[in-house]
Hints:
By secondary structure, the chain is α/β, with parallel strands linked by helices. The chain contains 21 helices and 12 strands. Strands 3, 4, 5, 6, 7, 8, 9, 10, 11 and 12 form a 10-stranded parallel beta sheet that branches. A two-stranded antiparallel ribbon has the order 1-2. α8 (281-291) packs antiparallel against α19. The chain crosses the membrane at residues 161-188, 200-218, 230-251, 257-276, 288-310, 330-349, 442-462, 587-610, 617-636, 642-664, 676-699, 705-723.
Amino acid sequence: MDDGYGRDGRQDFIRGAKDIAKVVKKQAGKKVGRSVDKMADEYTKRSYKRFEEEDDDDDYPVQQSQDGDGYYRNDSRANDDEGGHSDSTEGHDEDDEIYEGEYQGIPRAESGKTVPVDGIAPQAQIRDLAQFEAERRKDQEELAQQYETILQECGHGKFQWTLYFVLGLALMADGVEIFVVGFVLPSAEKDMCLSEESKGMLGLIVYLGMMVGAFLWGGLADRIGRRQTLLISLSINSVFAFFSSFVQGYSSFLLCRLLSGVGIGGSIPIVFSYYSEFLAQEKRGEHLSWLCMFWMIGGIYASAMAWAIIPHYGWSFQMGSAYQFHSWRVFVLVCAFPSVAAISALTTMPESPRFFLENGKHDEAWMILKQVHDTNMRAKGYPERVFSVTTIKTVKQMDELVDMGEGTAWHQRWRMKLADLFNQVWSNFLAIFSPEYRRTTLMMMAVWFSMSFSYYGLTVWFPDMIKYLQKQEYSSRTKVFIKEKVEHVTFNFTLENQVPLSLFLHQFMNLKMKSMVFEDSLFEECYFEDITSSNTFFKNCTFIATLFYNTDLFKYRLINSKLVNSTFLHNKEGCMLSDFSDENSAYMIYFVSFLGTLAVLPGNIVSALLMDKIGRLRMLAGSSVISCVSCFFLSFGNSESAMIALLCLFGGISIASWNALDVLTVELYPSDKRCTAFGFLNALCKLAAVLGISIFTSFVGITKAVPILFASGALAAGSFLAFKLPETRGQVLQ
């Protein structure tokens, strides 16, 4: 019994000695780790409760990995080789592994949260604002480096390609919106009796709406999230695009297109910012350029749908004389489909994890990044690979809570919340003009303005010049009849492109008149019945004993003419069309737009393949210079075919500049200001587009020299300023 007791005592003594040795070794390892990891982030430390009392609540630091990140799960077991177990592995053997399907809990990060220390309230720890901003900036820099490392681990695969097609639909909806009004104008002017001023306003209202939308949604996306803001903006676009296909009046149609433009205005700034935050630096330039192709696909979709739908006038119905639904309204309805599809697809995608981290939401960001990692690894055939990141740096947040009291009415609460949100958005906007970003912002404003002024001005000027050349060629075939007397003849066919100077004594029945100008003619005892006309006028004519029955030959078509014993009965209700257009000219508009949009395909491919090889600045400046040189060839465009060829050339070259500018804008601003800056610059782009379109189109038929000089000068200035911007290739996303 003594021997048994002695053996037990020796075993207890040996076991106690081993435990003491383990504790000493742990303490020595901890001291060495502290000296090595002195500058490691305090928020990555992990506590081990086994020696909590003995160590006086000291923590064991996470060992740094070889790349210096110190955020990976496998490294946390480096000091457990001698048998020590943390509470996270309680109940497991030393050789146990963590498998992908096993619940491990969400790692918690304390960074970015205000915590009481030694019983002191957080309000007592308020620091100087400058110091707070410095700490916040340091957090953002550390987050940028770690986030890039995490994206490298997640890889590029199925998740990014799925998001690519989802966001591509939103970008496609933006491309469609640009073309809708231009395609429906020739038909809508007949239904709505549009004057030239009304048509011009309808063409510009979309750009004005997109200008407001870009600024509004860009600012909100940095405060309430990329995904949520994009869903709201696309929903507004879809709803009012749907309504615009049914409203009858010009004012209501104009309002719907304005609000539809406001909705789609958020597409470009949010889509590029959203997608860039899932891309590692070596993939960012290339894949953002590939994303630009969906804008081209949107233009092709709009052109094809217009070609297939609008000329089919049988696709219509009418409810009395008050409500008409013609084929062009079907086209407007179909053009809302990409936006609706984007909304449906976007509901399946997560928010940007970078946005969550910038706003102190660690757990949500970690779960999304794990989803990205697991999706890509399973698609690549490595389902056993575990997402090894445990904690991620988050940015310190300023307490912005406002005590509204329990008795505050709901409308006052909403008003205060909206006022607070507006102040946050406005302060974020002012931040891009702070000394740190002022020079970059001013330079980018100049480049965006010059690019948009020349591009949109020329792309609208080209079709107008083609129409002008068509009119010139049409007018050259005009037939003039001088002093011919026609009597006892009934006209019941189409009269087109003629200028009669004659004496008429006959009947006009079931007749269409197209581009007819009667000058110094005498109509005696004539009978006009069921006449439909376009661009038809009577100048210095005399009507004696003439009857107008069921015609649209209103008195304002009679210029300096005399009516003697003449009567108008049952005049047609309709519009006087100042210009003539038929199916052939409509098909020409769709065909030219289709070719011009398709021509950007080579430029998209080249820019995507070379963006990460030659850099953003070289791509932007080089493409602008070549576009500037191509402007001088416009002086040789004296025919329809020549103008179409020059349109395709200019579009194919300039698209590379736009792709580089989009990538550069994303990478020049930090995540908490990215959408705000992009939205502001895109709003400025739409303002420049309105100015360019208004100025360039005013010179159609007058001179080519002014548009050529304006466009080439703007592009030359843009390319010069582009070289003054910093290159962002190979840098982590700020």
